[in-house]
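Quality-control log, excerpt.
Job 1 of 2 completed; input and output follow.
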Amino acid sequence: MRTNILKLMMISISLFLVSCNKDDDKDREKNYTLSEVQAIARITGNQSSNIVVVNMQGGLSYELNDTAQMIDFADAKNALWVDVQQIQTLNPDWFNKDISFAEAKTKASTNAENVDKVVSYYKSRGKTVCLVGVSYGAFVAQDYIARYGTSKISKALIVAGRLEMENEFWEKFSEGYDGEYVYGADGKVTCTFIENKTAKDRNLGRLAAALGCKRFTTLWENVNGLDKIMYYYGTKDEKVGNFTAEEIKFLVSKKVQLFSVPEGNHDDTSVAGVSKLKEYFQIP
């Protein structure tokens, strides 16, 4: 009997050690270095600032946008800015030929993963990490929050995105089209689409659809800390559409700080949201 008890104790200890080793491996995977962050992001601004603004760019393109104008407009030079690369800016040659929608979804998923590497690095160094995502960057920010939660961030400013894109819209983008919402004088909203002529442009549409197809009201249902989010949307946004009553109800129920831009198009909404960045993030 005593021998059996000793065997059970040894098995339990072994399992505990294996479990600890797995946890240690997981922790080591998240202990990113500055060189790893620099490989996937551009770092500018006040290097000694305690506030780190992690920016996910909008306007899908194959180059990392220059955010100097955005920083000047927001009067946010006193923060450290980290512009996270996206899959198509890191590897533009991957998109010279048409990819499938399934491939686009796999590739687009790495954007949130890169954001988490950056957030984890600065959070582990005691920094106050704030997220900003405008336009396509709004969808990257939403995907990050859906997958990693809000525990590592202080605040998030999301501008000109959607939680529930109309199926008609993202489905056409997944086929390589571009499109816009059209707001008629009679109040009717329709969508117009144009077929992109090059593989690289069609692939940008597929990357947009890869995140636009996600149902964030479902993905965010059990996410804690959504009250850290300030969200701006335009009631006449031609790029992503207006919020539905269901989207608004969901965000209000989660205590998201929600602001509409009446009659606001995509650019109007972007300007309105970014103008609040310094105040909301409490950048000196």
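Job 2 of 2 completed; input and output follow.
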Amino acid sequence: MVIECESSRAGAAQAGELLAHIGRLRADADLMDGYARRLRAIAATLGTCSTAPEGSRPALERQAAACASAATRLRAAAEALLAHARADRPTRGVSVA
């Protein structure tokens, strides 16, 4: 019985760590989306500036697309981990969001 309780506590700790990691992935995805928005806004502003270097707007748009793509991949990773956590959760005692 002692082994079973220790195993349950270890499983709960691992589930908690996994949920924390999922939260960090989602937060990072939100940050990357924010960076993409800022880069697009800067690119649009540079588009109206006649003294801006010629290649700056396309370069910023490529960076914005890369940020948006990274955000999508981070969210997909978070969802995959969440599915894994749900599949591996103990039958009682630990809730997985």
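Post-run check on job 2. The helical segments are 2-47, 56-88.
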